[in-house]
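Quick illustration, no need to memorize.
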Amino acid sequence: MNKAERQRRLVRFLDSDPFLTDEDLSQILRVSVQTIRLDRFELKIPEFKERLLTVAKNPGSPPRTLSGGELVGEVVDLEVGISGISILTVTPEMTLSKTRYVRGHHLFAQANSLAVAIIDAEVALTGIARVTFKRPVSCGEKVLARALIKLKKGNKYMVKVTSYVKDEAVFVGRFSIFAVAEEAAPQ
């Protein structure tokens, strides 16, 4: 991705979520934190604390989310029919009380809902899921999930989702998603 495209995407991400830190943006755009800071400086985008103050003063703009809150995590990039990115911050309620590690169904739900969200259809359902948990995720960590449609054959999609904490893969899922014809969907 060239500099102009990266900066355009940086602006779009911050428009949709002003709470993204430089570290979050560096993960999403796969560049160094220093590159993000230089881009912000060139674009005259304030640092995180100043953006928080601006948002706190103007609470009128609601976040953009999928209807009904069906997506687990916060979508920061969605190109329907191609790919998507979401971020999930692990809270104490998501963890096992004994170990403070996130319960696996939260990582699965983030990945599965993102895989379904990128399908270009009115109704899409998961048929098969093959998942691998790479390492435990702790309370307070941010999980960045990237979904990409690998194959489309008729109404069947193969979607790969890889979830990261910082630069380390913590979860990999391969999902067979089926687009359901509107006339076949329950009314």
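The radius of gyration is 17 Å.
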